[in-house]
Structures are given as structure tokens and as C-alpha cells.
TrEMBL record:
Record flagged with keyword Hydrolase: no
PANTHER family (UniProt xref): NAD(P)H NITROREDUCTASE YDGI-RELATED, NADH DEHYDROGENASE_NAD(P)H NITROREDUCTASE XCC3605-RELATED
Annotated protein name in UniProt: Nitroreductase
Pfam families: Nitroreductase (PF00881)
Length: 234
């Protein structure tokens, strides 16, 4: 698969088969993700790859705490409630996903079940917890940018090998649980996790393609000549 195709076709995958994922394949993907650029080559990211009982313990701890009313506890600032166009886009993808899954607007039980799936990392066979070096916390948000770039690389490399992934903020909503189960060193900050596995073709939400604005809406171009060329002057 070429890069353009992977970038265009990739979508978040939230339903997985029981097929196992080999450590060798995961190492290949992480080797590629590790090629991400970073501010002044700081390379602040770490990947903690969880499966089996370790991941099951994270799921259990996450679920118990969320159901028990323990407030979310993440190590990066919470994004809070989105408003305006951002809220609109959030609602848009939720509507697409619920429509695909046949979850009605007023079906509180199935909506809650969907949310709980997110806390269980969509029952994926593998979860990659992405962290960055705590020492960079006093250097502004750039380490988060760098680790985010590496995370996108991970997702694309997975996709191009037929593996499905969803970046899953819900999975680290109870970060103390993740930290303990995955034995994350204190000098790292938990950023997010990525649920990974072989896509279940019968899981309707996996077909959902989120919408994007036209390029003309998200990009502006300045200083191009009449032929539309960007060139050096002087
Ligand atoms: C930082 C981040 C956190 C995310 N957390 C979740 C999550 O907790 N649950 C979920 O279902 N999707 C999550 N997603 C996936 C987004 O919902 C998804 O990327 C977006 O709707 C666009 O859809 P696409 O990935 O299919 O293009 C997250 C994505 C990012 C980048």
C-alpha cells in the first residue's frame, strides 16, 4: 500500500477479530513510528505494548473505576467540553457511528454500552500506551506534538499492514490504573493509548469514514505567482 492510499483510506477501527497480533509485526510498526520528527531531535516518546492479562487488568480497572464514579484522572490537561464547530464535528462523527451501529438517539443503554467499550479499548487484543519524557513537561507542549506525530506514524504503519487502530483517549482516562498495570516509569507522562488488532469486517462502525472539510477551507496560500508556483525571490 502506498502512503497516499494509507492516508486517504485510514479510519479508526473499533471492532477486532480474535486473531492474535505478533510481537514481530508490532516491532516492525513501532520501528517505523520511531522515525517521526521531533523538536530538536528530542525523541521524547515511549511505547508500552500491552496484551493478554496485563491489558485485561487495565480494562478491568478502567471499567470498575468509571462505573464506580471515580472522576477521570489523566496526566495531560483535560480538553473539557468542546463548543461551536468543534462540538459540531464531535456530534457529526458520533451520529455516523451510532447510525452505523443502529444505536438510537434515546437508547441510553446502548449508548452507555458504546462508551464502556471505549473504556475497554474496544476489546482490542493489543494496546500501545504512548508516553513522553516528564523532563520535557517544563518545555511547553512540543513534546506532546512530537509524541502525537509518532502516534500517527504508528497508526499509518499499522493500517498499511492491514491492522486496524483507534487512538483511544478513553483507554487512559484512569491513568493510575494504566500506570500500575503497565509498570510505567515515573519519569514518563501518559499521553494516550492506541487500541490495535485485525479489523472485524462485520463490525459496522469500522466502515465509517469521518468527513473532512475541503482543502480550500483548511489551507490558505500566500505569495504564489500567477502560474501558481511558489518560488524564491531575491
Ligand atoms: C487524541 C485522540 C483521542 C481519541 N480518543 C478516542 C476515544 O477515546 N474513543 C474513540 O472512539 N475514538 C477516539 N479517537 C478517534 C477519533 O474519534 C477519530 O480519529 C475521529 O473521529 C476521526 O475519525 P477517523 O480516525 O476515522 O478519521 C481519538 C483520536 C485522537 C486523535
Amino acid at each position: 500500500m502506498d502512503l497516499d492510499e494509507a492516508m486517504q483510506e485510514r479510519r479508526s477501527i473499533r471492532g477486532f477479530t480474535d486473531d492474535p497480533v505478533s510481537r514481530e509485526l508490532l516491532e516492525e510498526i513501532l520501528t517505523l513510528a520511531n522515525h517521526a520528527p521531533s523538536s530538536m531531535n528530542t525523541q521524547p516518546w515511549h511505547f508500552h505494548v500491552l496484551t493478554g492479562e496485563v491489558l485485561e487488568n487495565v480494562r478491568k480497572g478502567n471499567t470498575e473505576r468509571m462505573l464506580g464514579g471515580v472522576p477521570p484522572s489523566r496526566e495531560i490537561p483535560a480538553h473539557g467540553k468542546y463548543e461551536g464547530v468543534h462540538r459540531d464535528r464531535q456530534v457529526e462523527i458520533a451520529k455516523q457511528l451510532f447510525a452505523a451501529m443502529g444505536i438510537e438517539r434515546h437508547d441510553a443503554e446502548r449508548r452507555q454500552d458504546w462508551v464502556m467499550r471505549g473504556f475497554r479499548q474496544f476489546d482490542a487484543p493489543v494496546s500501545v500506551v504512548v508516553t513522553y519524557d516528564r523532563a520535557l513537561n517544563d518545555h511547553g507542549p512540543v513534546a506532546i506534538f512530537d509524541a502525537g506525530a509518532a502516534t500517527y506514524g504508528l497508526v499509518l504503519a499499522a493500517w498499511s499492514r492491514g491492522l486496524g487502530a483507534v487512538i483511544n483517549g478513553q483507554g487512559i482516562m484512569q491513568s493510575p490504573v494504566v500506570r500500575e498495570c503497565a509498570d510505567i516509569p515515573e519519569d514518563q507522562v501518559i499521553l494516550t493509548c492506541v487500541a490495535l488488532g485485525w479489523p472485524d469486517a462485520t463490525f459496522e462502525a469500522n466502515a465509517v469514514k469521518s468527513l473532512r472539510r475541503e482543502t480550500g477551507e483548511v489551507a490558505t496560500f500566500q505569495g504564489f505567482d500567477e502560474a501558481g508556483q511558489g518560488r524564491r525571490t531575491g
